[in-house]
Fold this sequence. Notes:
Elements (H helix, E strand, L loop, with lengths): L5 H10 L2 H12 L15 H18 L2 H7 L2 H14 L2 H13 L3 H19 L1
Helix pairs in contact: 1-2, 3-4, 3-5, 3-7, 5-6, 6-7
Amino acid sequence: MPRYSQQYIANLIAQHDYGALVDLQRAASGSKLYDTKHPxxxxxxxxxxxxxxxxxxxxxxxxxxxxxxxxxxxxxxxCVLATLEELGAVELHKxxxxxxxxxxxxxxxxxxxxxxxxxEPAIIA
Length: 125
């Protein structure tokens, strides 16, 4: 398992961009806390939701948000929703939940893909 310095991690956090977020997720995936059997992978909920939303954005960008919902276990989606609610992220909660409930509706997914694209910088920030 690779080790990362606190300065390296702090620099990634300070960047507030997608590439840095991916690098942070890669580092966290190598930690002792990472557990694929846990809905939040064993990470603290706030960290988990940031990384999970990065995955949500990436799948929406690459192949459409429906692929995220099709492949994501309901327990993980419920963990995202509970964390977004706890954090008071009302609009993100609304959009994420909309996708969870309408992912098999092509028009609904197209609208959500557009919303994600339009709000991607704010979501990442």
